[in-house]
Amino acid sequence: MAGVLVLAVVAVACSSSKKAAPPTTAAPGTTAAAAATTTTSEVVVKSSRGFDGTTIKVAGIGALSTGFAGAELGTEARFKRANDTNEVPGIKFQFVEMVDDKQDPATALSEVRRFVTQDQIFAIVPDFSDVNPGSYLVQQHVPFVGFAFDNAYCSPSTPSTSIWGFGFNGCLVPTNPPKMPDSYGELFKFVSNKTGKAHPSALLFSADVESGKESTKTQASAAEGAGFNVVYAKGEVPVVVSDYTPYVQRWLSSDSGKAPDTIICLLSAQCIPVWQALKAAGYSGTYYTTIGGSAVLLKALSGTVSTAFYNTNPNPAFTQLANDLNAFKPGTEPVSYSNVIAYYAADMFIQAVKAVGRDITPEAVQQALAHITWQIPGLVGPIKYPDSTVVPTPACNELLDNSNGTAWTVVEPYACSYTTYPIDPKFTG
């Protein structure tokens, strides 16, 4: 399916053999309590950092040089519709700037400090940084909404309403979680059918940073729960790499001297040069990323499979998304995974502001996000907070195949799973 939109990051898939219909929830973007007690017309003119009584200022951050350039298009497109239609009566959303964190913690902290102290922003929307200075944002009471590359989006073991980071598909890199979602069911079916093995081997790798090391340990349990024989799981790839050969050589002998049946990349843009290195070394197994789906990546990721965290089949909400992007920047095509994620982050933020209804402050919006059940019906979600501060609840996706480099084909349609798997201590020791 050419031009399929997809999201990037750690895989959170759903096993079709364990699909469950989502429970009845409140209206998209609201909690049941908020839906019952507030209306969007109850806006009080009140100022706070980043809000002058009529305009809310936000900014974005991410690794623009490694895959997220232009991501702000999605946020600005969604804000444009909200502003044009007076979606939150009397309130406008202003996007200040999108900055490149250069995948450097010092740069990320410096830029975020500038946002808060000089630009006086209300929130970070979108956040695509995997070196996000979460502790500083929490200290300054700055909500951040985006793709949860960082464990600042996560609560260690029990659901929390005190975090300040929120992802449209929940906590993805938890630290010491008690369980993991049903993340690799579709991939397992695909690889098992391809190889004819009941328990095909799998290797997972991520970045040599704290969140990367944690994600490989925890995602290994999810892969094992789905049915894989996990032979290797490490966060070991440096942020800047000139030669992937040493890693590729190690990985291609990880299954008792042989190459594993599937290799799962838990990175973002770096998944592309890794795939080129693996192909050059003759790898013929299944390579899985979360950054495929866009037509612009068809050639670069030819021969791989990927995941979409939303429904790419034709639906009214998908059409609305495309129309919003085109209204903001005419001729936008194809839509990249990054601006789609940014669109979702903006929608989630808008829904939280609507749920607050009045007394708009960073603290009030943080609490609305901490209790939100968010979705765009027919397109993405639901995602339920605070449960999703531990693991995505539920885990939703579809599986895509790009075997010939000419089209992304839906292998398994969008669906959600509430199944979880316990953490296997052998991966966390």
Provide a descriptive summary of the structure in words:
With 429 residues, the protein is α/β, with parallel strands linked by helices. The chain has 2 domains: 22-176 and 313-389, Response regulator (Rossmann fold); 179-309 and 395-428, Response regulator (Rossmann fold), CATH 3.40.50. Helices cover 31% and strands 21% of the residues. The protein has 12 helices and 16 strands. The protein has helices spanning 32-37, 72-84, 105-119, 134-139, 185-195, 210-226, 245-251, 271-280, 316-328, 337-356, 362-370, 425-428; strands at 55-62, 92-100, 123-128, 144-146, 165-167, 179-181, 201-207, 229-237, 262-265, 286-289, 304-308, 373-376, 380-384, 395-402, 409-417, 420-422. The protein has a 7-stranded mixed beta sheet, with helices on one face. It has a 5-stranded parallel beta sheet with strand order 2-1-3-4-5, with helices on both faces. Strands 6-16 form a two-stranded antiparallel sheet. Strand 7, helix 6 and strand 8 (229-237) form a beta-alpha-beta unit. Helix 2 crosses helix 9 (316-328), helix 2 (72-84) packs parallel to helix 10 and helix 10 crosses helix 11 (362-370).
